[in-house]
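ok so i was messing around last nite and threw this chain in just to see what happens. nothing serious, just curious
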Amino acid sequence: MIAPPGRGTMGVPAGPSGCGAAGRHDGRPPARAADAGPIVRVLFAQARRRRRRIRLTGAIIVAALAAAAAALALAWPGRSPSRGGGEPAAVPGATHAAAVPMLAWVDSSGRLVIGNLATFTSRVAAEVDADPAVPLVAFGSHIYWVKQSGCFAAGAFAAPAIEELDPATGSSTCISPGEYAFPSADGRRLFISQTDTTLAELPAGSPAQPAQLTVPAGWYLPGGFGIAVANGIVVQSEDARWPAHPADLAVWNPRTGQMRVIGRAIGAIGAYTPPGAGYSLLAWMPASCRFPACPIAITDTATLSSRTLRSPLGYGFVLGGAFSPDGRWLAVFVNDSQQPGGQTATLAIASTAGGAVRLVPGVRMTVGEDADWVRWLPGGTRLVALASRDYLVTTATLAARPFRFAGRGPDADFSATLIPPR
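result:
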């Protein structure tokens, strides 16, 4: 999801699961926030609690491997989704280990741990020095993260910098100054956010120096984080007058310079791009709502047509979630009450075709304390969710099974993500 932009050349951005309210470009709340009413106070309180939890639970070092989502076409007017695989009879067991992806996270000793979701065993893959507020990224066969102590890249020392790890050998290489990395929608390029207005672009498998890109004046990569879509990169406008004038969300095409405005937003959740498609679906939360009872919009970045998802409980959604690999579902958290902060929220599975939202009653989180993340397993029939603890959820039955990796101490938390099976 989109976090507030942080002005400065290499400042630590807000955590990846923040509450999404746009802030000043120096990473602090706008000067008017104290007088802007309860909505603003709640948004910033939630963001502060979320960032505090990130630093405490991962203080030692946390990170996430952002697995590139598999893609099939999502239902849209004139565009029909493909069907996912059949529903398995039970939660995967040891006999299905080869077909199950791995869950990866960074433990309290700064070690990258990979856990098997079939056997619930784990192994240490490497020692890392990852920024606790920024997720790691899986790109091709390598893993990238922000090395907070810095390293030498292109003949000069940079801090922070993007480090590249080859899991097969355990060796790592410093590739560029940067505060975040994210893959292009087609998986052929890696974008490195160096500041909230500058990026480097690195083709997959290329030893060449990254190309430099600059976001047009008045637009920013919120918080240094990035979401790539088929038509470009998601950016937001200047937000100095927020919340009286919420920031615009837009898609910037670095090749043409074109800027297509999506709308005024509280924040973006994520994007889904079918393979080879000239469009993506962007899930975001419009600002034209009475917080916290805000809907979620899903917008086609090519046609700008949108579909709205509404909570069955009437209290809106938490800002966060993920599209399923086959594009048929969006996993989100639904507010359980109209309380604007500190309330509980329930995991829900929303149909992107019809808009129906089904609750998973066994999986609840505390808004502002637990990070709202889900990771879908290949096939789109199961997912991993973090709420009060870790769960494996079967989407057809909405059954949720808590799990823990043997001998690994605390549960894998919000820093964890999936590495698809090979």
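not much to say yet. Residues 1-98 have pLDDT under 50 and may be disordered.
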